[in-house]
Amino acid sequence: MTTRTLETTHELAAFLRSRRERLDPYDLGLPPRRQARRTPGLRREDVAELAGVSVDYVVRLEQGRGTRPSADVVEALARALRLTPAERAYLFNLAGQRPSTADKPATTAPPPLARLVTDLSPLPAMLMNHRFDILAWNPEMTRLLLDFDTLPSARRNAMWLCLMHPRIRALYADRERVVREGVAHLRTAWAAHPEDRPLTDLIAELLTGDEEFAWLWGERDIKVNGRGDKVMRHPDAGVITVRFEVLVPLEDPDQRLLVFRAADDESRSALERLCAR
């Protein structure tokens, strides 16, 4: 074993023991013990029963002798030990596994993030999930791009709009670059969320319905671009160059906060006139 493997194996063992010992069996609805024990928390037998694994396996993990647990076992242990989201992510990292996100798709904006999008006015801002579904937006973003309230919820997707919606298709001066980067982002998200059925359905729809997307998808470009400039030919305000920033909230790492700022004085004046309407 490498030094790194030994360190993470020992930390995995210690972390499992510490989280088991901090739990009160009464809080989990477990039957009372016949006699008091010196060791606090749950017994290894309790954890094994709650996680659906053998007691011997829990013992070996807590002693640093077990093989690396699978993602399913890590998930079962995280549920049994009532881990917080941060603790769950830490356990997956120690085990060298990637957590599944299929059972908790990000389909709504958490209220604090929705308020933040509103509070960012007069800067155009919107919140998206990892598959580019638009979850929240402020009035300035609708004036710059599109009134998302007029769209069915299934069509509030930035990638679909860029490829399929006539207004958005004509908006970007360097549309080829914008679409290419968007497809590369989408492929990166798909690799990180292979079990996300809505995401795979979106990709399948675009592959069959848009030749440009199918060609770019076949290029297999990978890119995560968190900032840059975009030149827009707005039908009401003329040419506007915006500088975008994409921020990822720590509490909701599968969501992205997109904020636009004017890149020059002329664009700032045009954006102010547009948003003042």
Can you describe what's shown?
This protein is α+β, with helices and mostly antiparallel strands. It folds into two domains: 93 residues, lambda repressor-like DNA-binding domains (434 Repressor (Amino-terminal Domain)), CATH 1.10.260.40; 165 residues, Beta-Lactamase (2-Layer Sandwich). It has 13 helices and five strands. Strands 2-1-5-4-3 form a five-stranded antiparallel β-sheet. A hairpin with a 4-residue loop joins strand 1 and strand 2. The protein is elongated and about 70 Å long. 27% of the residues are buried. The model has no long low-confidence stretch (mean pLDDT 87). One of its GO terms (molecular function) is DNA binding. It comes from Streptantibioticus cattleyicolor (strain ATCC 35852 / DSM 46488 / JCM 4925 / NBRC 14057 / NRRL 8057). It holds the Pfam family MLTR_LBD. This is Putative transcriptional regulator.
Quickly list its features.
5 strands; single chain; Beta-Lactamase; 2 domains; alpha+beta; 5-stranded antiparallel sheet; 13 helices; 277 residues; elongated; 434 Repressor (Amino-terminal Domain)
Termini Cα gap: 65 Å
Quick check: average pLDDT? Answer: 87
Which segments are poorly predicted (pLDDT under 50) over 5 or more consecutive residues?
Answer: none
Number of helices: 13
Tally of domains: 2
Task: Please give the oligomerization state of what you see.
Answer: single chain
What string gives the helices and strands in order? HHHHHHEEHHHHHHEEEH
- Record the strand order, biggest sheet: 2-1-5-4-3
CATH architecture of the largest domain: 2-Layer Sandwich
What is the number of E strands?
A: 5
Share of β-strand residues:
5-15%
CATH topology of the largest domain: Beta-Lactamase
Q: For the CA atoms, what is the radius of gyration?
A: 24 Å
Which percent range fits the helix content? Answer: 40-55%
Structural class estimated from helices and strands = alpha+beta
CATH class of the largest domain: Alpha Beta
Shape: elongated
Give a quick account of the main beta sheet: strands, pairing sense, barrel closure. Answer: 5 strands, antiparallel
InterPro entries: Cro/C1-type_HTH, Lambda_DNA-bd_dom_sf, MLTR_LBD
GO molecular function: DNA binding
Protein name: Putative transcriptional regulator
Pfam family, one: HTH_31
